[in-house]
Structure formats: structure tokens, C-alpha cells
Amino acid sequence: MSRIVSAGLAAAALTVALASGAHADTPHSPQPPRPSCSDGGTSPFQGMKLDGLKAVKKINMPGPLCTIYVWELVLDDERLGAHYSGGEFFLYSSEEGTFGGFLNGDLKFRSVREAGRVAFTYSDAAAHKRVEVRYGDPQHPEYAQVIASVTR
């Protein structure tokens, strides 16, 4: 009995939807507004001193109507190709003793183990006069090796 009622309700809902004008997009249907898109423009890191880092434009949000790009700082090829063992990469401002974070998609991590996952945005770079990518123990940043830096 409940199957008959469910089937009847589904048929009624479909009839109402079709009668109310629900249909596929046609040349006369209003189109949804297009999302604003960004090609990333020029690098926001121009004028900053990069040591061991390079600015890259990456896709932030691919979409059906447009793609949004963002600029990130990543390790340069020399630092990326070096061998690291026994520690973690972390973003640190030695002047203020504060930590930043690395991006992985929409998530931000305080430290990463792989050199290829070192990536951060302008907001982290511009928040301090100098920001360093360090390798070692994040619990003891004063002993960690400075791998790369960005200075305003």
C-alpha cells in the first residue's frame, strides 16, 4: 500500500513541476548570473625579496563557467630538490615568534613533511616584515634550519 502511495506522490510531484513551467534551459530561459572570475593578475609578491622561493599562479577554484587563480609562494627548484630528513617544514616569523601555515587545497596546516607541500599566500607573506620557511622541530623553532624566506 505504501508503495502505491509513494508512486502516486512522485507522479503528482512530477506533474506539478511540469505544469508550473519547470523545464530544461532553452534560449528563452533566464540564465543564472555568472560568478566573478579572476585570472590572478600580476604577482602580488613583486617588490618583495624572495630567497629560495618562487611565486606561482595556481588554480584555486575550477568551475564550469570560469576558473579562479591565486598566487602562492613555493620552494624554488633548488630547495625542492634538496634532501630533507627527520623534521618538518613550518612557516615562522622570528621577529614576532609567530607561526603561519601551508595550504593544501582549502585546508591550512601548521607544518608539513614534504617539501612539495610548502605553499603559502600573500596574506602570510605580508603579515610580517620577514617570514621564513624553516625545517626542523616546530616545537623548537630557534634550532630549526632556515630553508627559504620572504622579506617585505
Gyration radius over CA: 25 Å
How far apart the termini lie comes to 73 Å
The total of beta strands comes to: 11
| Main beta sheet strand tally, sense and closure | 6 strands, antiparallel
Helix content: 10-25%
Strand content: 35-45%
Shape: globular
Sequence stretches where pLDDT stays below 50 over 5 or more residues: 1-5, 13-20, 22-26
State the helix count: 3
What class do helices, strands and sheet pairing give?
A: alpha+beta
What's the oligomerization state? single chain
The run of helices and strands is: HEEEHEEEEEEHEE
Average pLDDT figure: 78
How does the SSE layout of this entry go?
Layout: H1 2-19, E1 49-51, E2 53-62, E3 67-75, H2 77-81, E4 88-93, E5 98-99, E6 102-104, E7 107-109, E8 111-112, E9 119-120, H3 122-126, E10 130-136, E11 145-151
Antiparallel strand pairs: 1-11, 2-3, 3-9, 4-5, 4-8, 4-10, 6-7, 10-11
